[in-house]
Amino acid sequence: MTETVLVTGGTGFVAGWCIVKLLERGYAVRTTLRNLSKESAVRAAVASQTGAGDGLSFFAADLTSDDGWDAAMASCDYVLHVASPLGTGAEKGRDSLTAPARDGTLRVLGAATRASVKRVVMTSAAATARPALSSGKVSDETVWADPDDPQFDAYRVSKIRAERAAWDFMKTANGPTELTTVLPGAVFGPILMQENLGSVQIIERLLQGNPAFMPQLGFWIVDVRDLADLHVLAMTSPAAAGQRFIATGDFLWMAEMASTLRAKLGSRAAKVPTRQLPNFAVKLLLPFMPHLRTPARLLGRRFPLTPEKARSVLGFSPRPATTTVLDCARDLLGRERSVSR
User: Fold this and answer.
1) Would you call 159 a catalytic residue per the annotation?
2) Pick from 163, 221, 263, 334: CA 20 to 30 A from residue 241's CA?
3) Residue pLDDT, tens place only, 254-265
4) Whole domain around residue 113: which residue ranges?
5) Is the pLDDT of residue 62 over 70?
6) Residue 95 is part of a domain; what is its CATH number?
7) CA–CA gap between residue 323 and residue 327 (Å, rounded)
8) Do 267 and 162 contact (CB within 8 A), yes or no?
């Protein structure tokens, strides 16, 4: 009998690839949209990878409302809760994204437990397992980040509080439903839909020559295709029940990403910056560039992190980060060419 999986937020970058991977494995897939007018666009994006949209259905549901979640969840075997509000929140405050992320997660879990789904896999963030920068500790799944730590922006604060709320909810939930969380780093890779791109905008801006002088920032990178595969592994592996899994591959500095783009893409990467802005210069600019205040705390830091648990328990084997960055850039450039025709 075909099992059914609900993926929340079908227009999202990660959600779209989760849908593709599930359909390839023969699952019946449902996805939620805030507005069903996006259904045709999602179907076309998925079909570009799978060849067809058979087995995919759509439900209207929003993280900010109770409406629609019970109907979307009815008779589902599994849930991949990928949807979450995006943005830095710099203009509205560090808690500006917390309520929709936390309350939306609780709505999803409430509906899932009422429907007695087998397991919910929630997409969190690697930052939720990051200790204080001065601690010297390695980020692993035993660590819980402090949402009041000033290193975190509104998006990461919302992820920390939403994941905490999810685990607290499950402590008192009755029934068979299990929870697993996946904690990705910076997610890059080929694009299905040109919206809700999150981290991909970093590569998009580099290709556009922005910023002209790069800050000394680095990222633990995961390919969106590998991340989607890991979600399916976390959904089906008996060993994943009740566990957190950090999902990252290699660490690259922004300057290394830029160097890779210039070396492999030739003239197509002509605008990619070549110079790095000294840390002291970034700090001098902070009064005039408030969006840099949170990232500035990470300048020059390659904080230690380990994805070993996902590798050893689930067999996670991410591709090289340089491959991911290049595939992402080539996809962005290809889309620019198709638009300009």
Assistant:
1) yes
2) 221
3) 999 999 999 999
4) 4-198+220-251+302-320
5) yes
6) 3.40.50.720
7) 6
8) no
